[in-house]
C-alpha cells in the first residue's frame, strides 16, 4: 500500500527515467534532520547502510533480504542538536556529523571502534563558528569557520584508527565561504562559493592551500551554493543551486544551474537551467546533486528530480498524505534516492 | 561555449594558475 501511495508522478513527455519505491525506514524518534549512506563492514560482510539523523541521535540501518532494513546501532548525542550528516566518499565504518544551533558549532566522527567487540565510539574533530563543511576523498574534511576578525579555511585528515591527523590551512578569501566542491578530473583542485556570489578556486597540493582565482557568478542569482564541479575541455563546470532566485520569464523558476567558467580569464556562461516544473508553485528549499542527477525539496512539500545535462525535470514525488517531504539525498550513486519526511520516516526509491 | 565568450581556453589551466599563484 505504501508503494502505491508514494508512487512518483512522471511529467508529460518525460518518461525515460522514473522513481520506484523500494523501502520505508521508520524510526520512533521525531523530526528527521538528515539522511545519508555509508559503507559498513561488520562480521566479515560489507554493505551499503543508511544513516538517519534526528536532533539528538544518529541511527545506522543495515540492509536485509527483500528490501527490508534493520537498525544496527544508535549513537546518542549530547545537548547540542545534530544539524547535518557530512558524507565522506570512499570510507568505511565512519560517519561524520555536524552539530550546532543556528550554525555548526562542532563536527564529530562516529565510528566502529572494534569490529571484534562490536563497540562504537565518537570523537570530536573541530569546534568553532563553522559556516560550511564537506567530506573529501582520502578521509579528509574541509571546513570554513569565522572568528570576529578573520575566516579560517582548512582541511583535516583522519587516520585508520579514527584519530585526526595534521591539518592543512587554505588561503581564505575575504568573504565567507558557504559551500565547497571537489573538482572532478583535477586532482587537488577545490572550489567554494561565497556569500557575495563568487566561486573561489584553490590548489590543495601544498602545505598551504593556494587561492588560485576568484570568479564572480553574476548578480541575477544571489547566494549560489556549489554542489559539484568538474573540468572538461579547459573549462571548469560548476553545478549551483539558487535558494533565493526569483522567477523570470526566460528561465522560469531555476533550482539548479550549470555554469562554465574559464579559470584563465574568470569569464563564465550559463550552460543549462533546471527549473521547477511548469505550473508548479513554490520554490527550491534544499537539494542534492550526484553525477548528472539533481533532486530538491520544494516549498510545496514535493520532491523534484532533474537531469542536469538536459535541464529536464524527470520525476516528481508529490507530498505524502501523512506529511510533506523534508529531505532529498542521493545514495553513493544516483541510482537510489533517499527521501525524508518531517516525522522521521525515510523512503528509498530506485531511480 | 566559444572562445569569443570566455576568452582564450587552456587545457592546462590548473597547472598554469598554480605556477602563477603566490605560495
Structural features, described:
The complex is a heterodimer of chains A (351) and B (23). Chain A is mainly β and 351 residues long. Helices cover 1% and strands 57% of the residues of chain A. Chain A is built from 1 helix and 27 strands. Chain A has one helix spanning 2-5, and strands at residues 20-25, 32-42, 45-54, 57-63, 69-76, 82-86, 94-100, 104-114, 119-136, 140-146, 151-157, 168-170, 177-184, 189-194, 198-203, 208-216, 225-232, 235-241, 254-261, 268-275, 284-290, 293-298, 303-307, 312-317, 325-330, 336-341, 346-350. Chain A has a 15-stranded mixed sheet with strand order 6-7-8-9-10-11-12-16-15-14-13-17-18-19-20, with no helix packed on it. Residues 1-7 of chain A have low confidence and may be disordered. Chain B is an all-alpha fold. Chain B is 52% helix and 0% strand. Chain B has helices spanning 3-6, 13-20. Chain B is elongated, with a radius of gyration of 11 Å. Chain B starts with a helix and ends with a helix. The chains are: A mainly beta (351), B mainly alpha (23). The interface between A and B is medium-sized, with 26 and 16 residues.
Amino acid at each position: 500500500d505504501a508503494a502505491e501511495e508514494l508512487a512518483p508522478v512522471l511529467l508529460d513527455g518525460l518518461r525515460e527515467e522514473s522513481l520506484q519505491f523500494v523501502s520505508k525506514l521508520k524510526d520512533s524518534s521525531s523530526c528527521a534532520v538528515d539522511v545519508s549512506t555509508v559503507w559498513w563492514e561488520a562480521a566479515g560482510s560489507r554493505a551499503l547502510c543508511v544513516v538517519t539523523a534526528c536532533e539528538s541521535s544518529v541511527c545506522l540501518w543495515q540492509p536485509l533480504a527483500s528490501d527490508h532494513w534493520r537498525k544496527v546501532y544508535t549513537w546518542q548525542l549530547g545537548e547540542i542538536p545534530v544539524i547535518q550528516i557530512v558524507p565522506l566518499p570512499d570510507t568505511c565504518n565512519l560517519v561524520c556529523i555536524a552539530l550546532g544551533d543556528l550554525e555548526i558549532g562542532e563536527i564529530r566522527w562516529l565510528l566502529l571502534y572494534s569490529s571484534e567487540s562490536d563497540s562504537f565510539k565518537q570523537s570530536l574533530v573541530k569546534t568553532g563558528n563553522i559556516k560550511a563543511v564537506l567530506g573529501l576523498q582520502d578521509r579528509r574534511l574541509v571546513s570554513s569557520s569565522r572568528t570576529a576578525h578573520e575566516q579560517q579555511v582548512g582541511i583535516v585528515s583522519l587516520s585508520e584508527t579514527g584519530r585526526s591527523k595534521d591539518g592543512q590551512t587554505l588561503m581564505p578569501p575575504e568573504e565567507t565561504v558557504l559551500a565547497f566542491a571537489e573538482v572532478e578530473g583535477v586532482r587537488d583542485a577545490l572550489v567554494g562559493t561565497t556569500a557575495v556570489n563568487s566561486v573561489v578556486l584553490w590548489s590543495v597540493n601544498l602545505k598551504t592551500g593556494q587561492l588560485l582565482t576568484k570568479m564572480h557568478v553574476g548578480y541575477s542569482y544571489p547566494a549560489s551554493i556549489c554542489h559539484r564541479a568538474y573540468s572538461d575541455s579547459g573549462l571548469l563546470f560548476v553545478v549551483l543551486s539558487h535558494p533565493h532566485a526569483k522567477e523570470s520569464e526566460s528561465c522560469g523558476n531555476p533550482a539548479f544551474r550549470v555554469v562554465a567558467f574559464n579559470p584563465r580569464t574568470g569569464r563564465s556562461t550559463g550552460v543549462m537551467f533546471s527549473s521547477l516544473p511548469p505550473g508548479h508553485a513554490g520554490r527550491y528549499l534544499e537539494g542534492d546533486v550526484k553525477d548528472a542527477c539533481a533532486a530538491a525539496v520544494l516549498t510545496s512539500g514535493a520532491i523534484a528530480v532533474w537531469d542536469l545535462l538536459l535541464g529536464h525535470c524527470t520525476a516528481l514525488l508529490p507530498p505524502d498524505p501523512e506529511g510533506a517531504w523534508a529531505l532529498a539525498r542521493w545514495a553513493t550513486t544516483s541510482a537510489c534516492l533517499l527521501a525524508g519526511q518531517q516525522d522521521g520516516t525515510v523512503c528509498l526509491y530506485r531511480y | 561555449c566559444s572562445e569569443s565568450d570566455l576568452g582564450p581556453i587552456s587545457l592546462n589551466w590548473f597547472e598554469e594558475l598554480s605556477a602563477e599563484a603566490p605560495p
